[in-house]
Amino acid sequence: MTTGCDMLRHGPVTRDGNLEVVDRRRIELVEGADASWARQPYHAAQGLNPEKARALVKRGIEAARRGAVREIQAAAERAREAGHETAACAVLVAGPMRDWSVDEILAVHFRMHKAEGVLFRDALLRAADGCGLRSVAISEKQLAEHAKGALAIPAAALMKRLATLGKSAGPPWGKDQKDAATAAMIGLQSRTR
């Protein structure tokens, strides 16, 4: 599973006190020998006997969690080496998922997609907590509402700030990058409250 990682800084360290993107990259949560099946462990377990399916899913979850810890630690280390403090890890999350068993998830194809989406986001949040960072889970569907409340700026001002960040960061700067930057701003802002 590949995901985006944006790190922002703000305050007196920038010339004008505005936000600045200090690290931007795609990170791999599952690599190496695990990559072929662990990106979609529920799909990989489909058709196996229940015991083997549960074991494979468990290994996939463990691989994602190890990868998330590795990547969160690496991001924090890069920030530290560049003279920045990591304030929080903001992760956009989907709606909540019922507490289905592996067998129940494998019985319905849609549930496999939902479970895999939740798996990697959960791995990032757990890794942030495990690395001593404050984790901030933000609903994808309620991002605009959350931003309005947390950032206390009008939507037009947020769009202007995102456009400025996009110009400084360079392409690509599409919806995914804007949403990740918005989440990072919320995480950064929640630290100062």
Summarize the structure.
Helix content is 56%, strand content 15%. With 193 residues, it is of the alpha+beta class.
Give me the secondary-structure topology.
Elements: E1 2-9, E2 20-28, H1 35-38, H2 41-45, H3 50-81, E3 88-93, H4 102-106, H5 109-130, E4 134-139, H6 143-151, H7 155-169, H8 175-191
Parallel strand pairs: 3-4
Antiparallel strand pairs: 1-2
Kindly describe this structure.
The chain is of the alpha+beta class and 193 residues long. The chain has one domain. 56% of the residues lie in helices and 15% in strands. The protein has eight helices and four strands; from the N terminus they run ββαααβααβααα. Helix 6 packs parallel to helix 8 and helix 7 crosses helix 8. The longest helix is centred in the middle third of the chain and has 32 residues.
Structural key phrases:
193 residues; 4 strands; single chain; 15% strand; 56% helix; alpha+beta; globular; two-stranded antiparallel ribbon; two-stranded parallel sheet
Q: What count of helical segments does DSSP give? A: 8
**What is the H/E string?**
EEHHHEHHEHHH
Work out the number of β strands: 4
Strand order of the largest sheet: 1-2
- Beta strand %: 15-25%
Task: Indicate the radius of gyration in whole angstroms.
Answer: 18 Å
Low-confidence stretches: 10-17
Helix content: 55-70%
- Average pLDDT, rounded to a whole number, is 88
Q: Specify the biggest β-sheet.
A: 2 strands, antiparallel
Query: Which structural class do you get from the secondary structure elements?
Result: alpha+beta
